[in-house]
Amino acid sequence: MKLGLILGDQLTLSLASLRVLDPATDRLIMAEVHDEATYTRHHKQKIALLFSAMRHFAQSLRDQGWQVDYHHYRADSDATSLLEVVSQAVNTHRPDAVVLTQCGEYRLQNAMDRHWSGHLGVPIEIYGDDRFFCTTSQFAQWADGKKQLRMEFFYREMRRQTGYLMKDEQPEGGQWNYDADNRKRWDGKTPFPTPPQFERDAIDEDVMALVSEHFADHPGELTPFYWATTREQALDALSFFIDQALSRFGDFQDAMVRGERGLFHSLLSPYINCGLLTPKEVCEAALNAYEQGHIPLNACEGFIRQIIGWREYVRGIYWLHMPSYAKENTLGNDRALPRYFWDGDTRMACMSDCFDNTFKHAYAHHIQRLMVTGNFALITGITPTEICDWYLAVYADAYEWVELPNTLGMVMHADGGYLGSKPYAASGNYIHKMSDYCKQCHYSVKTQAEDDSCPFNSLYWHFIQRHRENFQKNPRMSMIYRSFERMDDDKKRRIIARADHLLDHLDEL
Ligand SMILES: Cc1cc2nc3c(=O)[nH]c(=O)nc-3n(C[C@H](O)[C@H](O)[C@H](O)COP(=O)(O)OP(=O)(O)OC[C@H]3O[C@@H](n4cnc5c(N)ncnc54)[C@H](O)[C@@H]3O)c2cc1C
Ligand code: SF4
Predict the structure, then answer these.
(1) Would you say 276 and 231 are in contact if contact means Cβ atoms under 8 Å apart?
(2) Does the C-beta of 395 come closer than 6 Å to ligand 1?
(3) Is the CB of 391 under 6 A from ligand 1?
(4) In which residue ranges of the chain is pLDDT below 70?
(5) Relative to the alpha carbon of 368, which ligand is closest?
(6) Helix (H, G, I), strand (E, B) or coil at 28
(7) What CA–CA distances, in Å, run from 251 to 181, 185, 220, 300?
(8) Which of 38, 71, 159, 505 could be joined to 31 by an S-S link, Cβ 3.0–4.6 Å?
(9) 0.85 surpassed by pTM
(10) How many CB atoms lie within 10 A of CB 493?
(11) Residue 249: its pLDDT value, please?
(12) In which element (H, E) is residue 52 found?
């Protein structure tokens, strides 16, 4: 008899380890444990989503004939870690081996590789996670010998490998990437789709009560809770996105609108990351809509690029460079995270709206994460570990393998440009161009050095000036340095003085 351990982000019936186990002879174990629920201060909705999805998944496994030992969360449990729960199960059932699918996070995988087998006294069989398109060794081979990686080239490999949007070995429509068509501000007219609401059952209600009792000090609000917690609901969310939002996904992918949770984004990342949906079925649903003529090519290409491109690319980087990647800090940042990242209370309208979305919904769309909160952390020089911890805590889709390269590499450029060729630093102009935030802000986006000037405007130039050594020779940034040089000295001095003042009073903005 073998004991299969199913982790909270492995809620997929076709999981590699489930395929090698036999419901007639083997047992499964799933566990809600204190250590996993608290290794960072996860948003309340993230814990509720995962515990409820795990309980529903255990039910589906039982319906398929599996014997599942489910360890419910108890504050006074004597088993607070996964290892302790598995250890108790090994003592009870005396299995020949413990079987699992490769973990998503280095922290847990490393502990298993180093201590688990010795501690448990039984062999551990680990199977690769083939829900991803690219294996970790395939990625390592692709990256081998490259000093800097570029997602676009990796993405083309993935297009060739999957055959998605390929015709006679050439990209559909003649171009690999239609991003140039995807940078529109919201036109103020196209109505936003309203995502489906799901009925709650007794499992959801039990979990909500548990989270509100035991995780009250974690960030974020528990209700309203809109997330799907079952496979069927997640499939409904996928159909809804394909039918109602995907056709405009490309056009408004970079737009931001005050008070709008997801615009035309899919809101599917929590389900893809915990296994309720597979990346393959999500891409194939989008391709199918394109082939049937329901969505334009720029929408389909833009969407599948995020999944077979970015998602696989960041995972490859994570496994190739952990654990050292987590400690990188090429720009030498050492500033503490300002208070409003936790309490949301700031006069900057753009930041305030992103925090609102984050704390209310455990979600913010990509441009909010990258160009508002991320950009702010970059240009103010926040310590990478502090901002990484924040992103890991506050989003329902946050797992270290995907959060860390996005934050440390894409946002903070702390890996020296390994993941991306240039930092996504921007002044308030970018936010003004892509959103409706500035017209309702306490600060003026039009000026740079006045007492009420948009903080992003001077902080941006401060960033450019203080990292001249790092970026001046970067061909993608030479124009910016030339503009800075051309600025008259008095203006430069006033902008830098304003930024210095803001940095000294960061908590007060
Ligand atoms: C600082 C920062 C932190 C992030 N942390 C996470 C995280 O913890 N977990 C996470 O899943 N994504 C993370 N992302 C990537 C991206 O912002 C989210 O995947 C996306 O916002 C999820 O919303 P959605 O499902 O509506 O995505 P959509 O915009 O609808 O995109 C479709 C899908 O593509 C994938 N995707 C898109 N962009 C990325 C990306 N850059 N990296 C990996 N997958 C991507 C996701 O699976 C997403 O569901 C982060 C981005 C930034 C800038
Ligand atoms: S003025 Fe500046 S701080 Fe205010 S919303 Fe615009 S970009 Fe944000």
Answers:
(1) yes
(2) yes
(3) yes
(4) none
(5) 1
(6) strand
(7) 7, 8, 30, 11
(8) 71
(9) yes
(10) 12
(11) 84
(12) helix 44-63
